[in-house]
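Quick one, probably user error.
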């Protein structure tokens, strides 16, 4: 993956990752939840923990300068999250509290729109947006496994094992997503579309890395994964139905169809055995569980509110500064 630059923060991140001398840019942006430059910079700083980057030595993963700059980016992002994802725990069971958060969420439905009205070009762009996570699906949450114990750890491992295909690489969810991308004529190289993704998209991926890479946020990682699984089944059914409406077969719909089946079971495991067990074993982390869940819903709502108006007006919802060729929203 190359190191794209779209402003002073991503330029600083790129220079630091390459080991080049540079002045560290001050982290001050108008909206830390969606800023294009901040989230590209943070994505690059995180990506070195997952994959190789062009021109970046593996030693950069633990370079003190990179970590110090990443911490400044994270502080700005996390402070903003605390302003939109505060929720007070109640005495109800954790699964009930999570379900109430989901039911109260007012995000517009991207899956319903694509199922009814989505064009091939819209689906291609949707896959581009989601590729930043789904091509490494499950990896951010896996970082949390060593930070957990007992039934909580076992439940997360059970979920993650399915995400990785139960030991069969052909059924890894990232591999299934690659097939869908190929069927729609998209590149499947890691990071192929990162330079075209707006901050509001990259923020949804950075959120998972933030939670997974910090032991202090292990409760938030659990809450994030719980709601991720609890809200997956119905939207994925719609995404698959929309592709079938457009004439695509199992190679394109397989990723979504697999999630309809798998996540029906994962949602209950995540809410009860994983999140519920963590709250029982470490009651002080219940607030963090709810924080992770609410942060996910808040950022996904912002993403939906970004892409849907663009598609409805015939525009794409990619980064406005991108100069690369990209699909029109209505083709």
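Nope, works fine. Designed sequence:
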């Amino acid at each position: 993956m190359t190191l794209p630059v779209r402003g002073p923060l991503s330029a600083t991140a790129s220079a630091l990752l390459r080991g080049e001398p540079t002045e560290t840019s001050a982290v001050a942006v108008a909206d830390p939840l969606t800023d294009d430059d901040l989230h590209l910079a943070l994505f690059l700083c995180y990506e070195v923990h997952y994959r190789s980057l062009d021109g970046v030595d593996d030693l950069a993963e633990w370079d003190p300068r990179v970590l110090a700059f990443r911490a400044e980016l994270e502080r700005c992002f996390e402070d903003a999250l605390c302003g939109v994802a505060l929720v007070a725990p109640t005495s109800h069971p954790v699964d009930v509290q999570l379900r109430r958060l989901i039911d109260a969420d007012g995000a517009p439905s991207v899956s319903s729109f694509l199922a009814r009205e989505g064009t091939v070009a819209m689906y291609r762009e949707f896959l581009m947006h989601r590729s930043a996570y789904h091509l490494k699906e499950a990896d951010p949450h896996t970082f949390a496994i060593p930070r957990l114990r007992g039934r909580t750890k076992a439940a997360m491992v059970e979920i993650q094992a399915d995400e990785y295909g139960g030991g069969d690489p052909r059924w890894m969810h990232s591999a299934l997503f690659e097939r869908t991308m190929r069927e729609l004529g998209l590149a499947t190289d890691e990071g192929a579309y990162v330079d075209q993704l707006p901050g509001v998209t990259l923020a949804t991926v950075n959120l998972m890395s933030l939670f997974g890479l910090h032991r202090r946020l292990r409760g938030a990682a659990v809450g994030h994964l719980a709601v991720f699984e609890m809200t997956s089944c119905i939207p994925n059914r719609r995404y698959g139905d929309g592709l079938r409406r457009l004439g695509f077969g199992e190679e394109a719909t397989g990723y979504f169809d697999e999630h309809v089946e798998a996540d029906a079971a994962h949602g209950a495991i995540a809410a009860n055995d994983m999140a519920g067990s963590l709250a029982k074993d470490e009651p002080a982390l219940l607030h963090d569980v709810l924080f992770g869940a609410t942060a996910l819903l808040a950022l996904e709502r912002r993403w939906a509110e970004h892409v849907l108006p663009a598609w409805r007006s015939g525009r794409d919802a990619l980064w406005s500064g991108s100069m690369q060729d990209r699909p029109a929203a209505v083709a």
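Confidence is low (pLDDT under 50) at residues 323-331.
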